[in-house]
């Protein structure tokens, strides 16, 4: 199969400026349908095979109603590894962050099941023991995501806000962050994703997703990349300590997060 996953994609300066101003960017037609079908079938297979969530939706809490979440699929499959290590997405991430190289933090599939609940407002970097904000999450839908399926929605410019950075994802974060964003004038930006659209958002950009009211799963793959020179910071909460132990095993405080689980991803051919 002739894949475009390793073919570089040039970004205009205006796109990079937009990302830095708003804390996120949605890009159209980043990956062709045949790539998404090929890699997506393996991602879906592994997500379902490795999922351990078996409670009925009505018995789950808010977090578990939001999505099924399986991490580091790249270690389970060479096909998924090719996708996660793809030069196109890594190159875009590096350009948006204005860094020379990126390093993988971890990947995760996020499947919002039919009738799956809302994803509360939060910022990803609350969970990450990193010494800088040069982090980015790549959100890749494996099918079109109309509004009724719960596309990722961003608070425009909210990566500049301080309130809410100490809140884990929860019902309380949804209430408090939503109120704070509205009060500070950070407008919510919610749009559907066509097949091939991909979004990139900064670690401190606040975001959420509506429920999936369709009869189909919202199948999404994500990768979290960081500056290749990122150093490990002293955890400031118990979630960061857990992340350090799980995703950065052996890394030392103040040293570059250079472990077997955090390889540098090539960004050019």
From TrEMBL:
<dbReference type="GO" id="GO:0005506">
    <property type="term" value="F:iron ion binding"/>
</dbReference>
<dbReference type="GO" id="GO:0016706">
    <property type="term" value="F:2-oxoglutarate-dependent dioxygenase activity"/>
</dbReference>
<keyword id="KW-0223">Dioxygenase</keyword>
<keyword id="KW-0560">Oxidoreductase</keyword>
<dbReference type="InterPro" id="IPR008775">
    <property type="entry name" value="Phytyl_CoA_dOase-like"/>
</dbReference>
<dbReference type="Pfam" id="PF05721">
    <property type="entry name" value="PhyH"/>
</dbReference>
<protein>
    <submittedName>
        <fullName>Phytanoyl-CoA dioxygenase family protein</fullName>
    </submittedName>
</protein>
């Amino acid at each position: 199969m002739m894949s475009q996953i390793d073919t570089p994609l040039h970004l205009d300066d205006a796109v990079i400026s937009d990302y830095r101003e708003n804390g996120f960017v949605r890009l159209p037609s980043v990956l062709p349908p045949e790539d998404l079908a090929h890699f997506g079938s393996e991602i879906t297979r592994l997500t379902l095979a490795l999922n351990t969530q078996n409670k009925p939706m009505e018995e789950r809490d808010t977090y578990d109603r939001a999505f099924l979440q399986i991490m580091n699929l790249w270690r389970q499959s060479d096909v998924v590894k090719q996708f996660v290590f793809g030069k196109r997405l890594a190159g875009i991430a590096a350009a948006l962050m204005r860094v020379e190289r990126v390093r993988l933090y971890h990947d995760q599939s996020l499947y919002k099941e039919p009738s799956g609940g809302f994803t509360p407002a939060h910022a990803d970097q609350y969970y990450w023991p990193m010494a800088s904000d040069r982090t980015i999450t790549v959100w890749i839908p494996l099918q079109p995501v109309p509004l009724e399926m719960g596309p990722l929605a961003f608070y425009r410019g909210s990566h500049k806000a301080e309130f809410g950075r100490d809140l884990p994802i929860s019902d309380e974060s949804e209430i408090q962050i939503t109120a704070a964003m509205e009060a500070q004038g950070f407008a919510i930006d919610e749009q559907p994703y066509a097949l091939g659209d991909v979004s990139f958002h900064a670690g401190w950009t606040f975001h959420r997703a509506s429920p999936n009211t369709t009869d189909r799963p919202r199948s999404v793959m994500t990768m979290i990349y960081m500056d290749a020179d990122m150093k490990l910071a002293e955890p400031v909460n118990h979630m960061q300590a857990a992340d350090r132990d799980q995703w950065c095993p052996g890394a030392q405080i103040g040293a570059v997060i250079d472990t077997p689980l955090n390889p540098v991803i090539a960004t050019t051919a």
